[in-house]
Amino acid sequence: MLKGKHLIEPGDLTIEELEAIFTLADAIIQDPKKYSDTCKGHLLATLFYEPSTRTRFSFEAAMLRLGGEIIGFSEPNSSSVSKGESIGDTIRTIGCYADIAVMRHPKEGAPKLASKHATIPVINAGDGGHQHPTQTLTDLLTIRSYRKSISNNVIGLCGDLKFGRTVHSLVKALSRYEHMKFVFIAPPELEIPPYIIEELGDHPYDRTSSLEDAMPELDILYMTRIQKERFFNEEDYLRLKGYYILDQKKLEHAKEDMIIMHPLPRVDEIHTEVDQDPRAIYFNQAKYGMYVRMALIVKLLGLGGDLHA
Amino acid sequence: MLKGKHLIEPGDLTIEELEAIFTLADAIIQDPKKYSDTCKGHLLATLFYEPSTRTRFSFEAAMLRLGGEIIGFSEPNSSSVSKGESIGDTIRTIGCYADIAVMRHPKEGAPKLASKHATIPVINAGDGGHQHPTQTLTDLLTIRSYRKSISNNVIGLCGDLKFGRTVHSLVKALSRYEHMKFVFIAPPELEIPPYIIEELGDHPYDRTSSLEDAMPELDILYMTRIQKERFFNEEDYLRLKGYYILDQKKLEHAKEDMIIMHPLPRVDEIHTEVDQDPRAIYFNQAKYGMYVRMALIVKLLGLGGDLHA
Amino acid sequence: MLKGKHLIEPGDLTIEELEAIFTLADAIIQDPKKYSDTCKGHLLATLFYEPSTRTRFSFEAAMLRLGGEIIGFSEPNSSSVSKGESIGDTIRTIGCYADIAVMRHPKEGAPKLASKHATIPVINAGDGGHQHPTQTLTDLLTIRSYRKSISNNVIGLCGDLKFGRTVHSLVKALSRYEHMKFVFIAPPELEIPPYIIEELGDHPYDRTSSLEDAMPELDILYMTRIQKERFFNEEDYLRLKGYYILDQKKLEHAKEDMIIMHPLPRVDEIHTEVDQDPRAIYFNQAKYGMYVRMALIVKLLGLGGDLHA
User: Fold this and answer.
1) Of B188, B290, C41, C248, which residue is 20 to 30 A from A66 by alpha carbon distance?
2) Are A119 and A195 in the same domain?
3) pLDDT tens digit sequence for A206-265
4) Which residue among C42, C56, C65, C132 is the active-site one?
5) What are the Aspartate/ornithine carbamoyltransferase carbamoyl-P binding domain coordinates in residue numbering (chains A, B, C) (predicted)?
6) Which chains sit next to A, with 3 or more Cβ pairs under 8 A?
């Protein structure tokens, strides 16, 4: 049912479609060799109009581990594709060479526009501060794998909740599941915006500026970075940032089976001493990101077939 | 007979060699899967001293769809190969790693020079405004596929006929075939140069500045872009450019089975409304570009063997 | 025994480990097809924080000819991996996508630091002026192949012996073998430093400023470039450089079976007339560089197995 579809924003996928992707991702994780030729003879175009090595690597590794191949560019300079050419013409031409395309673009809406003219599936790999749906898929698969289900979790989201695209998309996505509770942990300057709160529907939520207060009830702690540029003055930044740095001391009252997530890259918002804690799963999260992209590519190419309805 | 040869300019290939390449391209188009491992174990080096994403993608997709692999660079900055090194040394070193090389270079003659020192076949993918032989091969295969034969066609070439490398090469190549008629459609400032006319031999030709007048007799309309920079002043450009923009109205008196070609990228010289017209085949042309490069690579590597003499 | 190890500097490998790599390289040279799927399903990450097309091509060709695949970047700009992120976090994330990594970095020690946090083998492909161990492996394999053994050779090293990283590493590596004699051929300004002389142990050595005087006794002549920037003034450079340019005349008194090596790129320190001389093996040296990297990758991935103890 996913064959030939585009993925521009997380809401493009129904809960059932998400479940089909996650089920396939599970199967790949169980037996990656079984899928090592699934995309043989297929080409992925990675069109990065803005550099993002991490995301590009994740998609390229995904395709290559499926036996597929890659053409692409990794930054605008090296691309003459778009020289005066409309994005519609570009994607139609790419469709002559490749079977599926991933697009990262500094302009909001560029991947959406491309998908309207495309003859092949287009995956949005980030358009400005707008959408980054495969990050959300990564987060959902990680939660589903470590917490057994996406439903029935208390999730704390900590850091820059005002501007953080990743957090907004994840909150929207999680609010489609049952029995969730959200705890928004941020300084007043960086609180979660009202329009995201509205997405929660009937789900209960709390707001707090104290990571330590929130800790004991959390099943999931989702850390994000607070960027210095978000503050009016440096004193505020320096005064506040310590409150939102996760270290072993702050974890003392956390649940034993809580998981600590982070979209990476991490700068200093999680102390490296936490890396050894079994609850710290953010590097594995990156690995789940590759697996979920493998499942997504297989589904959009229609190669998952009868094996994984 | 093509094994180990270089392709620096279209004239390097005899009509028979061209025919062998096109016959193989046809076979690949008919059954691409049959050729999906033909180049297994072989490496193509894409040496782009000047960025050209479209051409690079076409070559890379061609090699990957044959089961081969790619090493390469896509712009001069990322290349330290040539740091003070002669192009002869560079290509000899590349020959240690790869089995065939594609070179795009801003300097006329660079691929020719490289081929003289090379131990592997070198394909010119554009050297300055000089030659771009695989574009010509693309055009010939497209004509041959849509018009059944390259011979016996009336072709109209429209746009910048003075500076357009693509047009010059195509005219030279077509004049080697029988029963051609050429119609050169351009403003006086951008007329086809006399030395190209000389290449026509006995072939009949017309010159006109009116696309609409030329239209009714054409079997093939080859559109190219008129670059603003070619005009002495902006008024001339603005006054003239409308005459050479193809839209549905101008197509009213065209033949039913005429084909509309364009080397791409298109800017505004073909209105997007034309894209839906069945005569508009310029995006398929890009696909034929990939297929003809597949056939060329197989032939130069000597892998087409007895199957396609 | 090499499985999972890192290669940061040549001394990381024992003589036995080197021998195992060279033996496998020999087997690959004898029958490359046998190894064309050895790394199938494995990914190499090429992390070039500093461009080096030649070295990157050599590693990529090596991995691709083993049936493996590549993800990577070729210059710092196109990499957002390290944006504020520690090198430890970067390599841990890369380890989620790839099975082995090659790193080139302008800062000394960066690959070493990465290896400490890595979950996959890390190969140093050059860190500043510090180490470049696979160049040394290349040189050793070349000597072993052309001279039957690494031991029992008189080697002349000519050019910039003061700053040349390649020469320093090679001298250290060769001094671990038996019955070597070293002849250091350089102008006084660019003599071999005392701390390298100390590495020689009991091996005999000579110093001379005359390439012609040294020539008759050499089994191996290792040429390197003299960079203009190394001299205080241009007159000295111009006066001296001719003494260290190898041409046919200087080769008149060389042994019949002497081999001429050069790490490439060559600028003008070897006259092109020498290229035809059967003793000139510097382009083959580049090919051996690819083969030794093939063997190294197989060994570090633990895929050489029982076949090549």
Assistant:
1) B290
2) no
3) 999 999 999 999 999 999 988 777 777 888 877 777 789 999 999 999 999 999 999 999
4) C132
5) 5-144
6) B, C
C-alpha C41: how far from chain center: 27
Residue A189's pLDDT band, with cuts at 50, 70 and 90, is: confident
The ipTM estimated for the assembled molecules is: 0.94
Residue C4 lies in a domain: no
Predicted confidence band at A304 (pLDDT cuts at 50, 70, 90)? confident
Answer yes or no: do C281 and C147 share one domain. yes
Tell me whether residues A283 and C71 touch, CB distance under 8 A: no
Q: How far apart are CA B127 and CA A36, in angstroms?
A: 40
- Residue B98 touches chain C, beta carbons under 8 Å: yes
**Rounded to whole angstroms, how far apart are CA atoms A28 and A25?**
5
* Domain around C228: 134-286
Q: Are B30 and B117 contained in the same domain?
A: yes
Instruction: Determine the Cα–Cα distance for residues A62 and B38; give it in Å rounded to an integer.
Output: 24
Number of domains composing chain B: 2
Question: A57 vs C97: CB contact, 8 Å cut-off?
Answer: yes
The per-residue DSSP string of B226-239 comes to: --GGGSSSHHHHHH
**Chain B partners of A97 at a C-beta cutoff of 8 Å?**
57-58, 60-61, 286-287, 290
Q: Chain B contact for A92, CB < 8 A?
A: yes
Tokens read off for B76: 């001069």
Q: What is the mean pLDDT of residues A52-69?
A: 97
Q: What is the mean pLDDT of chain C?
A: 93
The average confidence (pLDDT) of chain B is 93
Contacts of B269 in chain A (CB under 8 A): none
* C270 DSSP assignment: B
**In this structure, are B154 and B270 located in the same domain?**
yes
* Chain C residue with minimum CA distance to B85: C267
Residues C15 and C107 in one domain: yes
Q: Is C61 on the interface with A (CB under 8 A)?
A: no
Domain holding A191: CATH number? 3.40.50.1370
CB B104, CB B83: distance < 8 Å: no
C83 a catalytic residue: yes
- Which are the catalytic amino acids of A? 54-55, 83, 104, 132
Residues of chain C with pLDDT under 70: 77-83, 305-309
How much is the pLDDT for B83? 65
Inter-chain residue contact B53 with A81, CB threshold 8 Å: yes
Tokens (6 digits) for C269: 């320190």
The pLDDT of residue B161 is: 95
